[in-house]
Amino acid sequence: MGQQFNKVILAYSGGLDTSVIVPWLIETYDVEVICFTADLGQEEELTGLDEKAKKSGASKLIVRDLRHEFLTDFIFPTMRAGAIYEREYLLGTSFARPLIALHMVDVAEREGADAVAHGCTGKGNDQVRFEVSVMALNPKLGIIAPWRDDKWFIRSREDAVEYAEERGIPVSATLKSIYSRDRNLFHMSHEGGPLENPWNKPEESMFTLTKSPQAAPDEAESIIISFKEGYPVALNDEELEPLDLFTRLNKLGSKHGIGRVDLVENRLVGMKSRGVYETPGGTILYKAHQSLESICLDKATLHQKQVLAIKYAELVYNGQWFCTLREALDSFVDVTQRNVTGDVRLELYKGNVTLTGRRSPFSLYREDYASFGQMDIYNQQDAEGFIHLFGLPNKVEALLALDGGNPSKYRQVDFDKFKRD
Q1: Which of 94, 220, 368, 406 would bridge 349 by S-S if both were Cys, CB 3.0 to 4.6 A apart?
Q2: At what angle do helices 126-137 and 96-111 cross, to 10 degrees?
Q3: Model pLDDT for residues 31-57, shown as the tens digit of each residue
Q4: Selected catalytic residue, list 19, 94, 126, 254
Q5: Residue 298 annotated as catalytic
Q6: Does 45 map to a domain?
C-alpha cells in the first residue's frame, strides 16, 4: 500500500476529468477532498463550480481571484524578458501552472492538507509544471496524479462520463467536445481531435477568442501603448490598471483577428505536439514592447537579452518558475528595463499588428547621428581604420595561405561551372 493521506487539495476546473477525480480520490484513498480553483480569467467556465464540486463529493470549493497577480507577477515579467518558446508560443498555459501551484500549496497549509492532486495526463507538460512547482514550494506535501496511478481505470472520455453518471455527478462535458482546451485571460489553447494531424487546417468553429481575420473590420485601427520601465501603463493616453488595460487589448485583438498561432512544439517529455493558440492582447503587447526596446537598449544589451530570452522561455515552458536561475534572469531583465519608457503606435488590421511609430525620452536613436551627412560626432574617414582592424584576422589568414603557395580557402570555387557554353 502506498502513502496514506487524510486531506487532499485538488486543482479543480469543473470539467469532466476533475469532476470524476473527486469521487475517485475519495473511493481510492479514503480522503477528504477540497477543491481549489484559480480564477485566471476563465469567465463563464467558473459558473456553478461550487455546487458541482460539492455534488462530486468535495467538502468545499475554494476560489481565488488571481487575475491581477497573474498579470503583474507572471505575464508581464515574461513579456519584459522577451521570452517566446520556439519562436512563436507566448507561454500562456506554461506560466499559469506555477501560479496555481503556489496557491494550492498555500491552501494546503491553511487547511491542514497533507497532499495535492491534479488531473494532468502522463504525456503532457502540465504534470511537470505542477509537481516541480509544488516540490520547490513545499516538498513535504504528497502529490497524487491519477492518470499515472495504477489504480486509475478511466482511460477515455466515454469511461469518465459513465463513471460520473453511475454516481449521479453532473458533468457539462459531452462526447461532442473533441478538443482539449486551456483558457485564461492571456490565451486559449486548442489540442487534440483533428489537430493531431498537422496537415489538417484548423476549423474556424474551433476558435473562441478571436474573430477570423477575413471577417475582421476592413479599416485599420491605430492605438498607442505607453510603457514605464517595461511595464504597460496606458492605452491611447489613458492611464489604466493592468487588468483593465489588458482586457481592452484583448478586445481589440479579438476584434481584428490577432494572435492566432498554429505550432508543432517540442514537449518537455520528449514528444512533439500540435497546438493552436489564441493570444490577442498578448500578441499586441509583445510587439509593442519589442519595438520600444529597439530604441531604448544599446546593441550589446539587446543582443544578450535576446540570447537569454531563449533560456527564460525554456525555464517557463519546463515549469521551472521557482528556481534561482529564473530569479537571476529577472534581475538582469530589471536592469535592461530601466529606460524602456515611452510610447508605441500600432495599427491593427485583419490579423496583423503593424508598427507605425515609437518614441522615448531615453531613446538612443538620433536622426542627426544616423544620417549620412558630415558631423562632429562621426567622421566617415574613421571607418577606414575600423575596417582594417575588424578584418585583420581574415587578412592574416589569407596572407599565410598565399605565403604557403595556396589561395584563400574561400577561393576554392570551380569558376568554370559559371561559364556560358
Answers
A1: 220
A2: 50
A3: 999 999 999 999 888 988 999 999 999
A4: 126
A5: no
A6: yes
Catalytic site residue from 177, 180, 294, 363? 180
Is 106 among the domain residues? yes
CATH number at residue 129: 3.40.50.620
Mean pLDDT of the chain: 92
Residues 17 and 142 in one domain: yes
Claim to verify: residue 247 and residue 343 sit in the same structural domain: yes
The residue among 110, 143, 177 that closes a domain is 177
Model pLDDT, residue 347: 98
What does the pLDDT read at residue 121?
Answer: 87
Read off the pLDDT of residues 267-306 as tens digits, 9 standing for 90 and up.
Answer: 998 899 999 999 999 999 999 999 999 999 999 999 999 9
The catalytically annotated residue of 67, 80, 97, 326 is: 97
Closest Cα partner for 117 from 221, 215, 35? Answer: 35
Neighbouring-strand partners of residue 353: 348
Portion of the chain with pLDDT greater than 90, in percent: 77
Q: Does residue 158 sit in the same domain as residue 198?
A: no
CB atoms within 10 A of CB 210: 22
Q: Is residue 243 part of a domain?
A: yes
Q: How many CB atoms lie within 10 A of CB 132?
A: 20
pLDDT of 152 higher than 90: yes
* Residue 376 designated active-site: no
**DSSP letter for each residue of 87-134:** TTB--TTTTHHHHHHHHHHHHHHHHT-SEEE----TTSSHHHHHHHHH
Beta strands in 208-252 (DSSP E): 221-228, 231-235, 238-239
Catalytic, 180? Answer yes
Q: What is the CATH number of the domain that holds 212?
A: 3.90.1260.10
Strands (E), 125-179: 142-144
Structural domains in the chain (count): 2
Catalytic residue among 13, 17, 226, 326: 17
Residue 126 appears among annotated catalytic residues: yes
Spacing of C-alpha 417 from chain mean position: 50
Residues 246 and 187: their CA atoms lie apart, in Å, by 12
Q: Select from 129, 147, 177 the last residue of a domain.
A: 177
Q: Is the pLDDT of residue 214 over 50?
A: yes
Closest by Cα among 46, 51, 79, 78 to 65 = 46
CB atoms inside a 10 Å sphere around CB 412: 8
